[in-house]
Design a protein that fits this description.
single chain, 554 residues, Alpha-Beta Plaits, 2 domains, alpha+beta, elongated, 9 strands
Amino acid sequence: MEWLSNLFIEHSALQAVVVLSVISAIGLGLGKIHVLGVSLGVTFVFFVGILAGHFGISIDPQMLNYAESFGLVIFVYALGLQVGPGFFSSFRKGGVTLNLLASGIVLLGTLLAIAASFINGIALPDIIGVLCGAVTNTPALGAAQQTLKQLGLESNTPALGCAVAYPLGVVGVIFAIIFIKKLLVRQQDLNTDSEESENHTYIGAFLVQNPAIFGKSIVDIAHMSYPKFVISRLWRDGNVTIPTSEKVLREGDRLLIITADKDIQALTILFGKQENTDWNKEDIDWNAIDNQLISQGIVVTRPELNGKKLSSLRLRNQYGINISRVYRSGVQLLATPDLTLQLGDRLTVVGEAGAIKNVEKVLGNAIKSLKEPNLVAVFIGIVIGLALGAIPFNIPGISTPVKLGLAGGPIIIGILIGTFGPRLHMVTYTTRSANLMLRALGLSMYLACLGLNAGAHFFETVFRSEGLLWIALGAGLTIVPVLIVGIIALKFMRLDFGTVAGMICGSMANPMALSYTNETMSNDKPSVAYATVYPFCMFLRVIIAQIILIILLT
């Protein structure tokens, strides 16, 4: 059994890899378990690591430090790449209001944490750890630990505070949203909001039998009709075409139309008759419908298209193609002319093969080059991020130079490269699955190491009066800022509940709460609001944790 001892107990590079892998595998497996619709996800790796550390499992300190640092760097850099394309565009129009409200939640929670530290005599590193757990933000915890290391202070204590506050941080946001909903939101307001925001696309075939539209162009019909729709194909005299906006409809024309569920009846009245064929099945081979036209997904990867309206590209008239649907963050949107494009949008394009190739050049479609991932850009970005994190910045009134560290530097460079990299001819766009893989790998390594470090003293901390105080304070730091800002947004700013709930989830970086909110809403407003505030709030929490420690401990 000596080989088994060497594999799990005796310190070596092999033993470190095995222990961290086992902890990550068990934690990720348990993280898929849902209790009352809530799961801890990858964060369960943290608690499995704590349990392993409690039972005396350890790895070489240098290996532990390396794996923890490398995992954190990979995670925050990939996170920066993910939020980068939408970071600056999130401040446009209504995004400014939502980001101000979300920033209010961040700053209010931080101020309450500092006040709790002075009132209750809790060490600042401990209360920062409690705050990170209360807002379920492990990147901020990593940033705080790196700052403490720079200041020559003990860096493990914040992890204990984070661990004891994290569980209630997950469910506390859900409880706060439920309370706000019960207190301030009427059922009729929810129903109205749902009806006004329904954007689930529906594909249907219609026959033109309404004499009122005979001889009228598609653009004229669109102007006279309230429902929004996109005509994907037109069949006439046995031939199929992509109709332009100037195409004149005749009696007997057969149209394949993409619209919203709620508008089917109105469009049936408008065109005359709907066919019974089900065009919404997942197994439809769109390329087999006709011989002339093909359907292909193209990803928007050219940065200059970010924020532009679909109509401004004039793709239909210039290339004879049609864009029927747009997929964004797992949500299918109707490709109306006023839809604003974002980097990473996947457009379903219908047309002839040659025309689609030309449209590929316009939209970018750099996703094809990801068959062999451009890891050069990833490693260059990490190096630049670490270099930025190591630069000391002298701030008047603070004796110790400020450094962005292992967390701040890479996330800033990740955001900048994710936004501006394509303009420098860098292939920085990654598929959602590739980005999730990098983030999950890095976060799992970081949390496993963090748990092992904190495990030895975790239970003795939790089951004493100090630990109970941390749990209570963590619950307050989770719920109080959310309630205050949520009530202000609903009561005084008159925002709808779906948007407010999504803004709250994004400000707290809580995808579990967003999942619960989406299950209770029939529209995508929570997801849109979450995506709007998440990038800036994630960045703000990572940076503010470092600034508070540097200002108050030097």
